[in-house]
Amino acid sequence: MAGADGATTVDEVIALFDAYGTDSYDEVVSQLDHAVQCAALAAADGADDALVAATLLHDVGHLLDLRDGGRPDPHGRGDLAHEARGSRWLAGLFPPSVTAPIALHVAAKRYRCAVDPGYHATLSAGSVRSLEVQGGPMTSDEAARFAARPGAEAAVRLRGWDDAGKVTEALVVAPFASYRPLLDRLAAPTG
């Protein structure tokens, strides 16, 4: 299958969300609902286009797992490094300004748990379960190294929208397809 090791077109990215976006992974909303809620929050907060795209696509690694026969784990026991897998899959198509925050969004949760004592209490049940599997809060040394990484600030911002984008009641947001022009603008030219 073209693009099995990496996305080569925006069409492939959209097709992945079309095929697997209605599944939930470890939250109460579908992957698709979560993606558009997060992107809407990022846009409303004035994020630039690359960060809105990163926020929209940050959990694409979960969809890749579903595509490859994985099953959602409602107990959060099997974090599959979805952030690294998703970032790698998108890297040939989108610039680092999109892929770096995706690669760091799990570390950003661990970082925020380490530097903000009240942050842990704001996490959803699924995020609390996955935090344990992902290594728990960072040590002070890990937090300092994370904060110095390129893209860390963007990943922390993405993390806030990720945490907030899990609303089950009617939240009016633009559909995934409305982000197509944004993704097309950011994507590397093909051909």
Can you walk through the features of this model?
Helix 1 (10-20) packs across helix 4 (60-67) and helix 4 (60-67) packs across helix 5. The protein has one domain (10-185): Hypothetical protein af1432 (Orthogonal Bundle). The chain has 10 helices and no strands. It is mainly alpha-helical and 191 residues long.
* β-sheet strand percentage: under 5%
- The first-level CATH class is given as Mainly Alpha
- Structural class per helix/strand content? mainly alpha
Over all CA atoms, what is the radius of gyration? Answer: 16 Å
* SSE ordering: HHHHHHHHHH
Q: State the domain count.
A: 1
Helix percent band: 55-70%
CATH superfamily: Hypothetical protein af1432
Mind telling me which CATH architecture this is?
Orthogonal Bundle
Query: Distance between the terminal alpha carbons, to the nearest Å?
Result: 18 Å
Q: What is the average of the pLDDT values?
A: 88
What's the count of strands? 0
Low-confidence stretches: none
Assign an overall shape: globular
CATH fold label: Hypothetical protein af1432
The biggest beta sheet reads: none
Q: So how many helices?
A: 10
Features of the shown structure:
191 residues; mainly alpha; Hypothetical protein af1432; 10 helices; 57% helix; 0% strand
Briefly summarize what is shown.
The protein is mainly α and 191 residues long. The chain contains ten helices and no strands.
What are the SSEs and their pairings?
Layout: H1 10-20, H2 31-44, H3 49-57, H4 60-67, H5 82-90, H6 96-115, H7 125-133, H8 140-148, H9 152-164, H10 180-186
Helix pairs in contact: 1-4, 2-3, 2-9, 3-6, 4-5, 5-6, 6-8, 6-9
